[in-house]
Every structure is written in C-alpha cells, then in structure tokens.
C-alpha cells in the first residue's frame, strides 16, 4: 500500500537546529517516488544534522499532495517536481540545481550520520582530484554493515597518494558524495540505464575522465530499506550490468556477457530472460553512446572482476564454513 502524507500530524523535533553554522560546502540531493512517509522521515533526519545542509528533493511521483507535503517540511528543501519518473536521472537534475561544490546523495529511506557531511567536505577540499567519495553504509536500526562495505574496503586497486581511502570503481547510490564539477564533467548518471545498478557506469566515467573514486569508511550513511524489499539481483540490475558492458567494455567482453545471459533461462533463471529482452530494447541507444574505457581503467575493472571471481570460488569451495 502506498503511504500518504495525510494523517501525519507533525515532524520530528530538530534538536540543536539553528545553533550551529550551516555547512555551506555540501548539499543533499534526495530522489523519491510514491513514499511520502519515508521521504518525510528522511527529511526529519537531515533537518537534525549539525551541518544543517541545504536539501534538494526530486519528486519522481505525480501526486501534487505529496509534492506539497515535501515543500511544507521545516527543513526548507528545494523540491523539484518534473511531473514524471526520472529514475536515477533525478540526481542529475538535483546536481544541476545545487549551488554547493559538493552534493551528497540520499534516497527516501536513507540519511547521513551527524558530522559525515562535514568530514566528506573536508576530504574533498583536501584532495582536489577526488570526484566521488563512497561512504560506509549502515543498514537498519541495528546498523548492520552493508555487504558492499567489505568489498569496497578490500578493493585490490593500488592506493593513490593523492586520494584518501581505498580506490574503487563502485559505490552505493544513497551513500556517496560527489564533487559537482566532476559530476557535470562526465554527464552524471546515464540515460540509457535510467535506474538500477547505475552507479558502476558513473564510477567508470569519472575514472576515465581522470577523477578519483574512493571508499572512506569514516564517512557514514544510514540506510533503512523496507523490510519487504526483495533481496538479490533484480531484472533492472542484470539488464543494466549488460548495458554497461556494451557502453564501456571491449566488444568481446560485452558479447560474452550477452551470450551467457541468453543461456541462463535454460538453467531456470527467468530473471535473465527478462533482463536480456530489456537490454536488447535499449541496445541501439547504448551502441550510439558507446565509448570504451581507457586501457588503464579497463585493466582496473578486470582486476576487480578477477578478485571477485576468486572470492566467489573460495566461498563455494567444499568444506568451507559459512561466514
């Protein structure tokens, strides 16, 4: 059932609001669609941050009452209502409207830890080549580590002396802070993907343009997804992983991935068939925008893939105790 703003009698208190100077270097960009109560709760959390960041909300829904409720929230967010679902491209819209040098991404089920935005801004100030900072994501009230944290923290990519943390080529969409000029430089999230696993392509494009992408575990975001959210890869994630190959990877790699995905339904993977059909519909657009990665970045991608494959084989080895 879609939650509604009706019946909400008030907003969470904002302890300390107005007692600290606003952090003027970073704003928060949130995208939301059809989850007003979740979005309002996230705004409550953002309003309570000591940094008091400016907030830009892109309402991907079409209900004027929801847009009005978002605009009425005491955080004073700038609410953009494109009148249609813009998917992840809503983040591009928010970045274009931002007036701060850095923009932190949130969804309507996530927010930033107190002090995280100031820490991120300090790191971006100190490292001018850093285009995107991937943060540590804690899930739910129990603050469980998102599985992606460990993969990013143990990235095999060599450390770069002019970047903080670990060099990576991926991040969680609701736990990242981007340098606005870097985001605009590469065009932001790609329209061919629209939504689902869109982060990898942005990381590729930033790295290809010479920007650094780093994981820093001292910058923390909170993520409270719906308990009923479906785990595991979705059709959109699988579709977009293939499209990312056609957009940026060597043709031989993209062709192998396409053949493998086409064979998956015979093994009972119905999601693969839907993903392949969706990818084929968008393939002409992907080919028009095809721009293979520079050799150095392609080698980095292959190193990450080889490391992930070794870890998967080790995890599946007979006699290995479950972690």
UniProtKB/TrEMBL annotation:
It comes from the Bacteria. Keywords: Glycosyltransferase, Transferase. The keyword Transferase applies. Residues 1-26 are annotated as: Disordered. InterPro entries: Glyco_trans_2-like, Glycosyltransf_2, Nucleotide-diphossugar_trans. It holds the Pfam family Glycos_transf_2. One of its GO terms (molecular function) is glycosyltransferase activity. Residues 27-183 form the Glycosyltransferase 2-like domain. Belongs to the glycosyltransferase 2 family. This is Glycosyltransferase. It comes from Streptomyces lonarensis.
